Amino acid sequence: MKKYLGTAIVALFAMSLSVAAQEVTETSNDANTQKIDSLTEVVNTLSSSVQKVEDEALDKRIWKDRAKYFNFYYAKQDLTQKDAGMTWKSDLAAAMAMGRTYYLHKKAILGMIKFGLDWTFFDINFGKYQDETGFFADEEDYGYGDPEKIDLYQAEVGMGIGPSVTINPVNHLKVSAHFHVTPSMSLLVVDSDVNTSYGTFMSVGGAIAYKAISIGVEHRWGTTKYNSMVDLGGFDEDYDSDIEDGDFIPKGDYDGKIKWKTGATRFYISFRY
Predict the structure, then answer these.
(1) CA distance 127 to 91
(2) SS3 helix, strand, coil % of the chain, rounded to 5?
(3) C-alpha span between 49 and 27 (Å, rounded)
(4) 201-250 residue pLDDT tens
(5) Phi/psi-derived region of residue 202, left when phi > 0, alpha when psi is between -120 and 50, beta in every other case
(6) How far is CA 249 from CA 210, 237, 253, in A?
(7) I need a labelling partner for 167 at 20 to 30 A (CA). Which of 6, 194, 221, 235 fits?
(8) What does the alpha-carbon distance between residue 194 and residue 188 come to, in Å, rounded to a whole number?
(9) Residues 6 or more apart in contact with residue 108 via CB below 8 angstroms
C-alpha cells in the first residue's frame, strides 16, 4: 500500500511539473509573439515612412524640379500680305523661349494628371525671306527687267501666358499640351525700310518629356499691321479715283497700316529644370 501511495505522489508531482512547464512555455510564447508583433509593426511603420519620403522625393523630381523650361525652335514660317494676296516662305526661321509652369493643384489627379498655367518670360522669334517677284521694287524700277531679289527680315519679342495639361503615366515620362497667347513687339525689315508694330501671337502644341529633356511641336500664328512698303504705279492719296477696290494701297504719302499675317510650325527641343 505504501508502495502504491508513493508512486501516486510521484506521478502527481510529475504532472504538476509538466503543467507548470507548459504554462511557462505558453507565457514565453505569448511574450515572444507580442515582441514579434511589435517589431513587425515598427518595421511596417518605418517602411511606410521610407516609402512616403521616396514618393515625395520622386514627386518633387517629376513636377517641381521640372517646372522651368528653356526651348529652342526650328520653324517653317510663312509671311502673307493679306491685301495683295502675296505669301513668302521662310529661308530660315528660328526661335527661343524661356518660362515656367505653375501647377494649379499640389496632388496629381488620378495620381498622374496636373493642370497648370505656363508663363513664358520671353519668346524671341526670327524669320528670313527672299522676295524674287519684284513686289518690293522701287517705283522707277517696277516692271523693267528681271525683278531684284530683296531680303525680308522679321522678328518678334514677346511675353506669353496660357493653360497647359501634363500627364505622367509612368516614372519620369510626361506628355503635355498647351495653348499660349503672346503679346509681342514685331519688326519687319525690307531692304532699307524698317517697320515696327504690335502683334498678338497665339500658339498651340504638345511635347513628350523624359526627365530634363523634351521634344515638341507647335503651330503659331498672328497678325500685325505695318506701314505700306511698296509703290504700285505711283498712286498717291491725291488721286483716290485711280485706286479701285481690292488694289494694294501704295506707300508714298499714304500713312495707313497694312495687315501682314504670320503662320509657322515650330519644332523644338526643351530643357526642363
Answers:
(1) 8
(2) 25, 50, 25
(3) 33
(4) 999 999 999 999 999 999 999 999 887 665 444 444 444 444 444 444 44
(5) beta
(6) 51, 9, 11
(7) 221
(8) 6
(9) 59, 63, 114, 168
